[in-house]
Design a protein that fits this description.
7-stranded antiparallel β-sheet; 7 strands
Length: 151
């Protein structure tokens, strides 16, 4: 029987914090670069909102799913893009999932260097200081999307 893709569901505290961070971003307050992402639901067709930490690495923006193969990841794979919001500033973007684990590893390491204080708990012992082999082993559990903001 095939194993289910990794996904770590948020506990009640995480859900409340995400709601608060999303509310703040919606109302113009970004916490250290956070934004509220909206992506069209693959089944409902309705826009689904979730707070994210857009990450720039090598001059390119990425979205990393710290919790694994979440609903927003599944929706993004179908929708191919969405919008990032901080207050009234809304940026439409297209997204391309990074399939190459070697490339993904570099983004994930940089993401953990920047956001590890917040997301290390979702990476099951892998941190920015982990070896390349440890990071490569974690990459299939954490989808990464390269995003291109539309002008």
């Amino acid at each position: 029987m095939p194993q289910q893709p990794y996904y770590l569901r948020g506990n009640a505290f995480n859900v409340r914090m995400n709601s608060a961070i999303g509310w703040l971003a919606r109302h113009g307050f970004s916490l250290l670069g956070s934004a509220e992402m909206s992506v069209r639901g693959r089944r409902s067709g309705q826009m689904q909102r979730v707070p994210v930490n857009p990450h720039t690495h090598g001059g390119v923006q990425y979205l990393v799913s710290a919790r694994g193969h979440s609903q927003w990841v599944r929706n993004m794979r179908v929708a191919g893009g969405g919008e990032l919001r901080v207050g009234r500033k809304v940026r439409m973007f297209t997204a391309q999932e990074i399939a190459d684990d070697e490339q993904k590893m570099l983004v994930v390491r940089a993401y953990l260097e920047r956001w590890g204080w917040e997301v290390n708990q979702y990476f099951r012992g892998v941190t920015a200081r982990s070896t390349d082999a440890e990071l490569l082993a974690a990459c299939p559990d954490h989808p990464v999307f390269r995003i291109t903001v539309e002008s």
